[in-house]
Design a protein that fits this description.
This is Group-specific protein. Keywords: Signal. There is one protein chain. With 140 residues, the chain is α+β, with helices and mostly antiparallel strands. It has a seven-stranded antiparallel β-sheet, covered by helices on one side. Strand 6 and strand 7 form a beta hairpin.
């Protein structure tokens, strides 16, 4: 079971990074359907999305303690940050160039962030993300 979980996390990370490599000059937001295991929508980023994403990052209030943090159903939204954001809290101190918002089907959304050494961190937050989702045209 642990191997399956690790494989899922690696696969998701690989898919997001593969799409980033294919479009390095095109810093787009990508929305992935977890069940389909594919990117279902891309949209260009802009300053209002960057601002909303930074608001979410500032509201980090805890660490996700689930054994298997990637849900079986839901969506993941990868948002590039330009300029990068300096995140400093009691869990991490790193320059962040993208965040992934994980939206499980039946739970509250949370963040996946990678530090400079590609260590993954799953964080909870309390702020509503409705404005960001509306700007992105979500739900699809």
């Amino acid at each position: 079971m642990l191997q399956k979980t690790l494989l899922s996390i690696i696969l998701v990370f690989f898919l997001f990074n593969l799409s980033t490599v294919n479009a390095q000059d095109n810093k787009s937001i990508e929305i992935m359907d977890i069940v389909k295991n594919e990117i279902i929508k891309t949209t260009p980023t802009d300053s209002s999305i960057q601002l909303e994403t930074e608001k979410i990052i500032k509201e980090i209030d805890g660490v996700v303690k689930a054994f298997k943090p990637i849900p079986d159903k839901g969506y993941m939204i990868k948002i590039p940050l330009e300029p990068s954001y300096q995140l400093e809290n009691k869990w991490i101190n790193a320059l962040i160039d993208e965040v992934i918002i994980i939206i499980p089907e039946t739970e509250k959304p949370f963040l996946l962030i990678f530090d400079d050494e590609n260590n993954s961190y799953f964080f909870t937050f309390q702020i509503k993300i409705d404005k960001l989702l509306k700007t992105l045209g979500f739900p699809i």
